[in-house]
Each structure stands twice: as C-alpha cells, then as structure tokens.
C-alpha cells in the first residue's frame, strides 16, 4: 500500500487515515474500542468484530491523557444529523484500527 506523507503524520493513501496516532471510542456499554476517523465518520471495532459507524456530531472529542498522541471519542446521546442514514463512507480495513 502506498503511503502519502502529511505535514505531521503519514496518511494511508487508500483510506485517508492518519497513521501512528491512537484513536479510541468510548462506548457506554462496550467500553473503550479501537477507532478511526474518516471524513465525518468515526468507525470502531466492537469486541465481537463488528465495525460500528458513528458521526462527529454523535461524539465528544478530547486529547488522550498521559501525554499520549491520539484522540478519545466519547459516544453521546446526540442523534446523527439529518440525511446521515445515506452515508456511504467505506470503513477502513480492520488491521488499520490497531489495538488499545
């Protein structure tokens, strides 16, 4: 897979994902899940292997604590914006998620 180099972090040319930066989605019932942001979508891998799909308006975003380079998304009770049910963004490959 070809990799493009961004100003700060390499980006996967195929998925447009920042590599090397840890992203975590905190889900109220599933806990902390490995996640990736693609455009306005937040994808996370559930423990059973399903890929969950949320949008930026449904999460709160914060930097990871402890000086780690990354982002923590926390799922809120906000509904997705109108028209999001037609979202056709393809999720990244599972290997792109990494681990927590």
Please, could you describe this protein's structure?
This protein is an all-beta fold. The chain contains no helices and 8 strands. The strands form 2 sheets. Strands 6-5-4-3-8-7 form a 6-stranded mixed β-sheet, with no helix packed on it. A two-stranded antiparallel sheet has the order 1-2. Strand 1 and strand 2 form a beta hairpin. It starts with a strand and ends in a 25-residue tail after the last strand. The N terminus is likely disordered.
Notable traits:
single chain; 100 residues; 6-stranded mixed beta sheet
Task: State the gist of this model.
With 100 residues, this protein is mainly β. It has strands at 3-5, 10-12, 22-27, 31-38, 41-45, 51-55, 59-63, 70-75. 0% of the residues lie in helices and 41% in strands.
Provide the low-confidence segments as ranges. 1-18
- Computed Rg: 13 Å
Strand content: 35-45%
Q: Judging from the principal axes of the Cα atoms, what is the shape?
A: globular
Structural class: mainly beta
Largest β-sheet summary: 6 strands, mixed
What's the average pLDDT?
A: 80
Query: H/E element string?
Result: EEEEEEEE
DSSP strand tally: 8
Helix content: under 10%
